[in-house]
Amino acid sequence: MATTAKIAKNERRKELVARYAQRRAELKRVIAHPSTDPDARAAAVSALAKLPRDSSATRVRNRDAADGRPRGHLRKFGLSRVRVRQMAHDGQLPGVRKSSW
């Protein structure tokens, strides 16, 4: 299980990403547009660099919803591989059965 500090830090990152998402998208659109003059592009690049580092979506870590495990995350369930296996064996995941042949 992950420490509560790591889980809380990741939640703060999610909030920052949501807060700055629109501003980041506008700046990236200006940078990527081919008809933008070089001065405006340079200003957009510097403004993007001045935004908080944790406001980038790539800084958010996918974690297990139950205990915060950062590795082996399965998006379909929102859980780690360990938790998915455990819950599937206990019959707590609807429609999931252990295969055998």
Automatic annotation (TrEMBL):
<protein>
    <recommendedName>
        <fullName>Small ribosomal subunit protein uS14</fullName>
    </recommendedName>
</protein>
<keyword id="KW-0699">rRNA-binding</keyword>
<keyword id="KW-0687">Ribonucleoprotein</keyword>
<feature type="compositionally biased region" description="Basic and acidic residues">
    <location>
        <begin position="61"/>
        <end position="70"/>
    </location>
</feature>
<comment type="subunit">
    <text>Part of the 30S ribosomal subunit. Contacts proteins S3 and S10.</text>
</comment>
<dbReference type="Pfam" id="PF00253">
    <property type="entry name" value="Ribosomal_S14"/>
</dbReference>
<comment type="similarity">
    <text>Belongs to the universal ribosomal protein uS14 family.</text>
</comment>
<dbReference type="GO" id="GO:0006412">
    <property type="term" value="P:translation"/>
</dbReference>
<dbReference type="GO" id="GO:0005737">
    <property type="term" value="C:cytoplasm"/>
</dbReference>
<dbReference type="InterPro" id="IPR023036">
    <property type="entry name" value="Ribosomal_uS14_bac/plastid"/>
</dbReference>
<dbReference type="GO" id="GO:0015935">
    <property type="term" value="C:small ribosomal subunit"/>
</dbReference>
<dbReference type="GO" id="GO:0003735">
    <property type="term" value="F:structural constituent of ribosome"/>
</dbReference>
<feature type="region of interest" description="Disordered">
    <location>
        <begin position="52"/>
        <end position="101"/>
    </location>
</feature>
<keyword id="KW-0694">RNA-binding</keyword>
<feature type="compositionally biased region" description="Basic residues">
    <location>
        <begin position="71"/>
        <end position="86"/>
    </location>
</feature>
<dbReference type="GO" id="GO:0019843">
    <property type="term" value="F:rRNA binding"/>
</dbReference>
<keyword id="KW-0689">Ribosomal protein</keyword>
<dbReference type="InterPro" id="IPR001209">
    <property type="entry name" value="Ribosomal_uS14"/>
</dbReference>
<comment type="function">
    <text>Binds 16S rRNA, required for the assembly of 30S particles and may also be responsible for determining the conformation of the 16S rRNA at the A site.</text>
</comment>
